[in-house]
Write a structure and sequence with these properties.
This protein is an alpha/beta fold and about 325 residues long. The chain contains ten helices and twelve strands. Its EC number is 1.1.1.79, 1.1.1.81.
Length: about 325
């Protein structure tokens, strides 16, 4: 069994060693330009086209992250990046769920307890207690009810928040009011006080966080975007904040990363910026799942995390 690895920033030796320990029967190598030797599996993130082109004999391509939008975009721009007929798999959770719960919960509580406003008051040396929010008047909406969305919903429900979710297809999450499909999006948005975006990045969801959507939320709502920068129309967010449709936003992802030094988000008093760290790939957990999936494929079983290229996730 031959496994190819490529990631532009990860420590390659960590992955070669870890995969060899988990799959001792495998020969694991880091792909280098000009490497056209046979391979059964490829583990990649933003691979050069020549790495995978014409490798129709692969049994599986593993994207080293929860999202596959980047590699699907590469395929659109450079057809052949993904050999036709080869299964594409994404990581499912592998420690990202807990990280996302922690990230989202930090900002939910920041906004719910009005800590963002107290921070602004501190800068102005103001001592002014603010009227606290009540959970019953602070509905939280989650866009995206996949693995991460469901885990975030569960931790918020456990804390007593009223939680609703919206997804492409019907989902059932205990204690959560579920909406699905474009026709039900207005009903989901109506009254939502804090909106969390965890949608997959697909052609259908690109630019979905626009001014028209923000205006449908409860007045002075909050936004947390921890999915993809492509979901957000950045100029619309600034307009919504300046016009009072939104009270504040926490952003972990951006259309162009790293965020340009002169971008207005850096200095906007109602915007919090983090550098795409809400949920990162944890090597040990990721390798455990990949090894289990490779064994499943070798045994003729269906692996976890199979991607529908047409849907984009």
């Amino acid at each position: 069994m031959n496994i190819l690895f490529y990631h532009p920033t990860f420590n390659s030796q960590t992955w070669v060693t870890g995969l060899t320990q988990r799959l001792p029967e495998a020969q694991v190598r880091v792909w280098q330009p000009g490497d056209h030797a046979p391979a059964d599996y490829a583990l990649v993130w933003q691979p050069p086209r020549e790495m995978l082109a014409d490798r129709s004999g692969l049994k599986g391509i593993f994207a080293l992250g929860a999202g596959v939008d980047a590699i699907l975009a590469q395929e659109q721009q450079a057809p052949g990046t993904l050999p036709a007929g080869v299964p594409l798999l994404r990581l499912e959770d592998t420690g990202m769920g807990q990280q996302m719960q922690e990230y989202v919960l930090a900002y939910v509580l920041r906004f719910f307890r009005r800590m963002d406003e107290y921070q602004l008051q501190q800068q102005q040396k103001q001592w002014q207690p603010l009227k606290p929010y009540r959970q019953e008047s602070f509905p939280i909406g989650i866009m995206g009810a996949g693995v991460l969305g469901q885990q975030v919903a569960q931790v918020l429900v456990a804390l007593g928040f009223t939680v609703r979710c919206w997804s492409r297809s019907p989902k059932q999450i205990e204690g959560v009011e579920s909406f699905h499909g474009r026709d039900n999006l207005p009903a989901f948005l109506h009254g939502t006080r804090l909106l969390i975006n965890l949608l997959p990045n697909t052609p259908e969801t690109a630019g979905i966080l626009d001014l028209a959507l923000m205006k449908q939320l409860a007045p002075q709502a909050y936004l947390i975007n921890a999915a993809r920068g492509a979901h957000l129309k950045e100029g619309d967010l600034l307009t919504a904040l300046d016009q009072g449709h939104l009270a504040a936003a926490a952003l972990d992802v951006f259309a162009d990363e790293p965020l340009a030094r002169m971008h207005p988000f850096w200095s906007h008093p109602r915007v919090t910026v983090t550098p795409h760290i809400a949920a990162v790939t944890l090597p040990a957990q990721a390798m455990d799942q990949i090894a289990a999936n490779i064994r499943a494929i070798e045994q003729g079983k269906t692996p976890a995390g199979m991607v529908d290229r047409d849907r984009g996730y």
